[in-house]
Amino acid sequence: MWVLAFACTSGLVAAAPKGARKGSAPDKKAAIAQLAIALDGVDDEAAAKAADELGDSTEPAAHDALLDSLAFGLRAPVAVQALSALAKHPAPPDVSSLERYALHHNPTVRGSALNALALYPDPVAHAAVVQGLHDPAGVVRTSAANAAAKAHVREAIEPLFALLARGEESAARALAAMADADLVRKLGDQLGKVPDASLALCLGLVLRRPDFGPDAERVEVVRAIGKITDQSAVNALTDYIDATPKNPPRQSRAEAEKMVEARISGGAK
Amino acid sequence: MKSRGHRLALVLGLMLGLGCGGPVFRLTSPDNDRTALTTALSHRALPEQPAPLNSSRTPRVFILAAGGPSKQLIAYDLQRNAILWKQAADVQSRIWVGGNFIVELEAKQLVARDQQTGAIKWQTAIPGEFIGATADADRAYIAYKENASTWWLAGYDGSSGKRLWKADADGILGAPMAHGGIVYVPYNQQWLSLIDGRSGAIAARIRGIDEGISMLRVTSRVAFYGSKQGVFRLDERSASGKRAESSYGQVKVPPQLDKTSYGRDTYDPVQNAYTAADRARILYAAPGEGMQLDAYAVHYFRFVFGFDHTGALIWAYSNPRVELVASEDTGAAILAISQTGNLVALDPANGAVRLDQNILNGAGVGSVLGATFDADGWSPSAQGEKTETVAALVSIARDHDARFDRVKELAVQALAKLPGGEVTQELLGVLADKRAPQHLKDVVVDLLVARKDPASLSVLTAQLAAHDDFLLQTEPLALGPVAKAIAGLGGAKLDPAAVSAALVALQSHLDAPTTQVADLVFVIDAMAAIGGGKERGALGSHLLLYHADDDLGSDPAWGKAIVLALENHGGPGERELLRQVAADPRTKPGLVAIIRDALAND
């Protein structure tokens, strides 16, 4: 059932040689072979489409075709697609290929590889993600930060703090996504060490995480935001108030309201 | 047996007899008369051993310094290590040392001062335009120009200042130099007259046949003359007038040390005072005989460089911060004094610092303008000083004074000739110095490549540790040059562990996303040069990754580097890989052509 559905949606059927029975093993093999040829062809558009289709396949041969093509070297626009395709069905051998492309001269390719590496619970993959946070290209650092958040790469926390200190929004978002109570305390300690706006953004995003709690921990976050004098703190609290229903009552929401009122009325800063 | 004086008188009589009453210095005089020259030279009262000229034979330096409204004239006793005296005096010239007096120019007066006290003994007006002055044990001498066409040399009694004689010239006289009773007087750029200091009569005359005569230098026992081209030792062979038949020498001075001279240009009136010319001097001592120098040094502003007879730089001294304003080779030491009054004594053989002491501390004087040493044969006692040539060369190379950019080139060239990783580290330091001039860096790169010092591989590898890193704010330091230098080690016997470490470091830059093509080419070359086959996998993977890339794949320099690395250093597997890449329709056409050329003989 799945094979048929996959074949229909992926175009494997259309790519099958004439005479081959639809959905049969030789059928799929031939289709994959056709896609592999397209992937290695000079037509970038067709190659990218083939990569996408191979990625959709659960056939080991399709995965192998992607790995083979990546090993032989793909042009940048095709590589971007092939890397994403490869990660659709992660397998341990993929990591070395992804790691290779995570250092590609083209930043877009590097970003794609890092995004893919987020799906691999492998120390080598994590190391590559951490290395991506050091990349001179902002687009790559953003991908690395996203990957670090997605894979919860603990080794990435320190460099993410360093990026937060430089005001990188992607670092704020990644840290917010990864934050637990302990990390929130560490974030609170960053007051004065990182730009106020970045810290407020980060803590505000933590507040809005539905999985973050209990409310006592949210209260700590609200209080940490309250120490930030920048207008961005008011914005973060306001966003939290707006996003949170009045009932059931939450102490964190109540404290946030008081802080916002006090700031607006010119009281406590 | 007739005395030397009688012989000289006889010769002088003969020569004056030929003069027929015209000027003493004139074009038509007997030249290059060996007998007259020998007699004149033998008439000089010279010490048996090199010694100071002053009557007490005490090594001294006479210093002219700025200080307050007037300049300060200071006599310093090098033996006792003490200031002998200090006098305020508006001195307009250098200082010439006599027996118990010195002479110098103040306003338009030649002033003689007592050497023990600095008090004025006598003074006399310069009768015309001042050309130069000199002194010996008993007399002072002035050359001057009276009108547009008449030059004079006059002798004065050193004790009283009484003029003893004067001799005229129908051509240009240079600044004279006295030497044990004989006065050497350059004439019309081509002649050197030897004048009897007692009478003013010409004792002998040398005509330079294949080299002009504009330079003079005397030590206590030897006189030198010549030009910027070379230097003659004044001896009996000088009668030939020719380089080949005289005691003549030339030393190699690196082009970076331009404007250095063997001695004062006697025709340059500016050099009657202490000038920059005193800071760019070739320093040499007379060999036992002849003029073939075993070693010599060059004082160049803040620096002193020692050379062997082949012209190879063998030592260097760098004076911290300020220039050395005067220097002298006493035969036993090279003495120099800095603008701040530091007296430096160097071992002429190896540059070891025998003395480095401020002799004007507390003297209340300003910067030193110039100095005259009267210390022939003297040196402070040697005490096993260390030679710091590497440190001196590094100091010069790292100096940020833009005036000495060419000297820095000389320093790095000399450094590069020394073996060892420490030196390589210092050369790399120049590359890492953001304030170092680009031309100097280019020179260093060439030197690193030419160095081929296997011991430097680990140092070069360490230099590869830095990468482009946004968080650490680092970037590779001289990646291309370092890789080029490593490539230069190809074929040398290298430590396998060092090679492995170097390959890892090089591959990190091969794989790094931000390595520029210009550097990448050298990285590839370096890996191929030292890898011994271990690099093939990394280079093959690199080729595959970028063979169809719009940027790298189309770059001919990159293509040539990677293809040749695999073709020249690879085996059958690498050649098959190249064939497959060439057959791939996505491979950039330029790269295909390079591969086909490389494999043409297969």
Architecture blueprint of SSEs:
The complex is a heterodimer of chains A (269) and B (602).
Chain A: H1 2-10, H2 12-15, H3 25-39, H4 44-56, H5 60-72, H6 76-86, H7 94-101, H8 107-117, H9 123-132, H10 138-151, H11 157-165, H12 169-178, H13 181-188, H14 196-207, H15 215-226, H16 231-243, H17 251-264
Helix pairs in contact in A: 3-4, 3-5, 4-6, 5-6, 6-8, 7-8, 8-9, 8-10, 9-10, 10-12, 11-12, 12-14, 13-15, 14-15, 14-16, 15-17, 16-17
Chain B: H1 4-19, H2 34-42, E1 60-65, E2 72-77, E3 82-88, E4 96-97, E5 101-106, E6 109-114, E7 120-125, E8 129-135, E9 139-147, E10 150-157, E11 163-169, E12 177-179, E13 182-187, E14 191-196, E15 202-207, E16 215-218, E17 223-226, E18 231-233, E19 248-249, E20 264-265, E21 280-283, E22 295-300, E23 303-308, E24 313-318, E25 324-329, E26 334-338, E27 342-346, E28 353-358, E29 368-374, H3 389-397, H4 405-416, H5 421-432, H6 438-451, H7 457-463, H8 479-487, H9 496-511, H10 517-531, H11 536-546, H12 556-569, H13 572-583, H14 589-598
Helix pairs in contact in B: 1-2, 3-4, 4-6, 5-6, 5-7, 6-8, 7-8, 7-9, 8-10, 9-10, 10-12, 11-12, 12-14, 13-14
Structure explained in plain terms:
The complex is a heterodimer of chains A (269) and B (602). Chain A is elongated. Chain A starts with a helix and ends in a 5-residue tail after the last helix. In chain A, helix 8 (107-117) packs antiparallel against helix 9. Chain A has 269 residues and is mainly α. Chain A is built from 17 helices and no strands. In chain B, strand 4 (96-97) and strand 5 (101-106) form a beta hairpin. The N and C termini of chain B lie far apart (95 Å). In chain B, helix 5 (421-432) runs parallel beside helix 7, helix 7 (457-463) runs parallel beside helix 9 and helix 9 (496-511) runs antiparallel to helix 10 (517-531). Chain B contains 14 helices and 29 strands. Chain B is elongated, with a radius of gyration of 32 Å. Chain B is α+β, with helices and mostly antiparallel strands and 602 residues long. In chain B, the strands form seven sheets. Chain B has a five-stranded antiparallel β-sheet, with no helix packed on it.
